[in-house]
From TrEMBL:
Transmembrane segments: 7-28, 40-62, 74-97, 109-126, 138-162, 168-191, 223-245, 283-300, 312-331, 365-391, 411-432, 438-459
Compartments where located: Cell membrane
Membrane topology: Multi-pass membrane protein
Protein name: Flippase
Keywords, in A-Z order: Cell membrane, Membrane, Transmembrane, Transmembrane helix
GO CC list: plasma membrane
């Protein structure tokens, strides 16, 4: 498999999907305001945590066992049965405590939460099975399709006055459609699983489930706690800043999802040098987009959030902190992805436990005293703890080099980009007077991205080789 090309396909697909989602979010922010956007973020956070409880690492275990190449239909069937049972039980609990759910969000959304939960679990199962069949590019291509469908339905429902309910319903319908398409693209059949298949999934999932909890902790603990301590409009502002930071994680997510099946296969075949090379590649390119994004967040944070509306500009103070957090977390994710790929779930369990504890404790301590900034700082500090622990642990398992030179060259190219962006922004403000914020942002981002990649292409031999090796014209 041409890993670079596959990563790019996944990245490009996610980029297109996120761009479509960004347009929809802008429409919701400008039409409904920060308060409704905050309620929507709270609903998605609740569903994400319920989905974690409904999955408990089974999806990751399905992918891992299927990539090992034996009894794949039995493993896929066993995983689906377990997740279905958990999902139905959790749905019943939501209906039982519907008043508490509705009170927390501020709207009667419990039935829609159940629908989102069940359909999200369905989609996660199809995605994990596709990845287990090493069809990562297909899951990547399904992403923009799902977001496009979701955005169109949501915008239509909001336009006719459905507001929050329309946003949630659109999300649920899109999940269902993508899951059905993914199911149709699977090659694996259905087979009656034995006890050993359930036991094997359990042996992997009993440690790997905490990886999902760690991801949810990074993405949603701050949002959930902000919903407790602050009003929904501030949650909406914070969520808008988070959406920009998460947009920058698309490439490192594409790298990790592409490399996991290859790491797993290389480890199963005893090719340790290949494993080390894949780890080094993941660290080399994990920050390729996030590093310039950090500089851009510092320089253009207020302009970026002004696109959402004047009330969102207050989030500029936390945007660059959240991007720094995603950069640290991105490296942590690559390292933990490698640990999972070489079948070390106990090690990832311990690291994830430390990360989650740090994240929860810091958020509880800092949000009541520092507000939005406290939530962002807590997230960044906990990511720093996680990346240090992950690096030490992985280096005790396999020998690999940290590509410090390549990372330094990416920072150097980002610094050059920042200088050019500052110069162009000054020119636009003083000489040309381009009095249109959105047009200014688009121009500055385009100039910055071009400067960064041209500079990196010039100073990094490894980056040039990667571009040439994965070119469609390279045989």
């Amino acid at each position: 498999m041409r890993i670079g090309q596959t990563s790019f396909v996944v990245f490009a697909s996610k980029l297109l999907g996120s761009a479509l989602g960004f347009v929809a979010t802008l429409y919701f922010a400008r039409t409904l305001g920060a308060a409704v956007l905050g309620q929507y973020a709270l609903v998605l956070a609740i569903v994400a945590w319920l989905s974690l409880a409904g999955n408990l690492g089974i999806s990751g275990a399905i992918t891992k066992r299927m990539t090992e190449g034996t009894d794949t239909p039995a493993y896929a069937t066993a995983g689906a049965l377990v997740v279905a049972a958990f999902g139905l039980a959790l749905g019943a609990l939501v209906f039982l405590f519907d008043e508490a759910v509705n009170a927390y969000v501020g709207e009667p959304v419990a039935p829609l939460v159940v629908a989102l939960l069940l359909l999200g679990l369905f989609q996660s199962l199809t995605n994990s099975a596709l990845q287990g069949e090493r069809k990562v590019h297909i899951t990547g291509l399904l992403t923009p399709v799902g977001i496009a469908v979701r955005s169109v339905i949501q915008i239509a429902l909001v336009f006719v006055g459905s507001e929050l309910v329309g946003m949630i319903a659109g999300y649920a319908i899109a999940n269902f459609l993508v899951a059905v398409v993914g199911l149709g693209l699977l090659s694996v059949g259905v087979a009656r699983p034995s006890r050993k298949h359930f036991a094997s999934l359990y042996e992997y999932a009993k440690f790997s489930w905490l990886g999902g909890l760690q991801s949810r902790s990074f993405n949603d603990v701050d949002v959930l706690l902000l919903g407790v301590f602050l009003q929904s409009s501030l949650v909406g502002v914070y969520s808008a800043a988070w959406s920009i930071a998460k947009f920058l994680t698309l490439f490192d997510s594409a790298v990790s999802s592409t490399l996991f099946p290859e790491l797993s296969r290389a480890d199963a075949e005893g090719r340790q040098s290949s494993v080390a090379g894949l780890v080094e590649d993941s660290l080399t390119y994990g920050g390729l987009v996030l590093i310039p994004g950090l500089f851009g967040g510092i320089l253009l944070g207020d302009r970026l959030l002004r696109i959402y509306g004047p009330e969102f500009v207050t989030g500029a103070s936390v945007l660059w902190i959240l991007i720094a957090a995603t950069l640290l977390y991105g490296y942590q994710k690559q390292l933990l992805n490698a640990l999972n790929g070489i079948d070390r779930p106990k090690a990832t369990f311990r690291i994830n436990a430390a990360f989650i504890a740090a994240n929860v404790i810091l958020n509880v301590l800092l949000i009541p005293t520092v507000g939005l900034v406290g939530a962002a700082v807590a997230t960044a500090l906990s990511a720093g703890v996680g990346v240090v622990l992950a690096l030490v642990t992985l280096r005790s398992e396999i020998e690999f080099e940290i590509p410090l030179g390549e990372i330094a060259r990416q920072f150097a190219a980002a610094a050059a980009m920042a200088a050019v962006v500052v110069g162009v922004e000054t020119l636009l403000r003083t000489a040309i007077d381009l009095n249109h914020n959105f047009a200014t942002v688009v121009l500055l981002v385009a100039v910055g991205a071009g400067t960064y990649f041209i500079t990196l292409f010039g100073i990094s031999e490894a980056f040039r080789s990667t571009v040439f090796d994965n070119s469609p014209f390279h045989s």
